[in-house]
Design brief:
Helix 4 (104-117) links the parallel strand 3 (96-101) and strand 4. The chain has eight helices and eight strands; from the N terminus they run αβαβαβαβαβαβαβαβ. By secondary structure, the chain is an alpha/beta fold. Helix 1 packs across helix 4. It has two domains: 1-39; 41-245, Rossmann fold, CATH 3.40.50.150. Helix content is 44%, strand content 21%. An eight-stranded mixed beta sheet has the order 1-4-3-2-5-6-8-7, with helices on both faces. The protein binds S-adenosylmethionine. S-adenosylmethionine is lined by residues 78-80, 101-103, 106, 128-129, 147-150, 225-228.
């Protein structure tokens, strides 16, 4: 009786351990990535309580590598693992790319690859997008790529959508009159809602497609992000818009 009980307890523990093993390993992996992110010379973190000017300085000191020459700056926001930005950085060595996400363990993958390959025109910034205006100067950014942001389908969560007017105002502030916001998503509801937000906030549409990969838009636009790769493989259509801020 006693032995039987012990065995059953052991079996339960083993089963429970198996269930949580993957979780423990993935948490360990995340911690490892967090730690490495902070050590990598191409990675930067910014929190609300930090000085935005100082963060800006650190990022651009890295990107300029001691040269004076000003280069166009392209941001990818909500970049996730930033494979899109890394590929663009390889292709355009005379442009500075900054991949931004709130989660450093996601950015880590491309940060590591960039260092290993010696791609030095890309930096990785962990920050909340509410902080964009504190880190980047007005009129300083040539292009913002917003790639596959979370849709936040519930109406009460609309303020978290990265095309909400509160975010559009931040983007407008750091872009100049020749700059562009480029946005792609798989989510039709989010896309239509975003087009409405853009119109209401006085942005002009320069390019628009409801099926990017079957359009004649630039090949660069079809370089896939991590999420996009999965959506395209499932046969989903990618929606795309280039929008330009118009003066009040
Ligand atoms: C669905 S994933 C897309 C990632 C990537 N763009 C792709 O297509 O593979 C959305 C990303 O947005 C980031 N994100 C969501 N809200 C954010 C915010 N307010 N500030 C910074 N990043 C945010 C998340 O951490 C997540 O990595």
């Amino acid at each position: 009786m006693f032995i039987g009980c012990g065995i059953s307890v052991n079996i339960t523990i083993v089963k429970e351990y198996d269930k949580f093993k993957d979780l423990i390993i993935s948490r360990k992996r995340k911690k490892y990535k967090f730690a490495n992110f902070d050590d990598y010379k191409n990675c930067f973190s910014h929190r609300r309580e930090d000085d935005g000017v100082e963060t800006h300085q650190r990022v651009f000191d890295y990107l300029s590598h001691g040269e004076d020459q000003e280069k166009p700056v392209v941001l990818e926001i909500a970049a996730g693992n930033a494979q899109f930005s890394l590929q663009m950085a390889r292709k355009y060595p005379d442009t500075h790319f900054i991949a931004i996400d709130i989660k450093s363990d996601r950015l880590y993958t491309s940060a590591k690859a960039a260092l290993e390959e010696g791609v030095e025109n890309i930096a990785f910034l962990r920050t909340h997008l509410n902080e964009l205006g504190n880190v980047f100067k007005s009129n300083s950014i040539e292009t913002i790529w917003l790639t596959f942001p979370d849709p936040y389908p519930k109406k009460r969560s609309a303020k978290h959508r990265l095309t909400h007017v509160s975010f559009l105002r931040q983007y407008r502030n750091i872009l100049n009159e020749t700059s562009e916001l480029k946005f792609k998503t798989d989510n039709l509801d989010l896309f239509l809602w975003s087009l409405e937000q853009l119109v209401n906030d006085r942005w002009h549409f320069l390019e628009l497609s409801f099926d990017l990969h079957d359009s004649n838009l630039k090949d660069d636009y079809k370089i896939t992000t991590y999420y996009e790769q999965r959506y395209v493989a499932r046969g989903e259509k990618i929606k795309y818009v280039t929008a330009k801020p118009v003066e009040a």
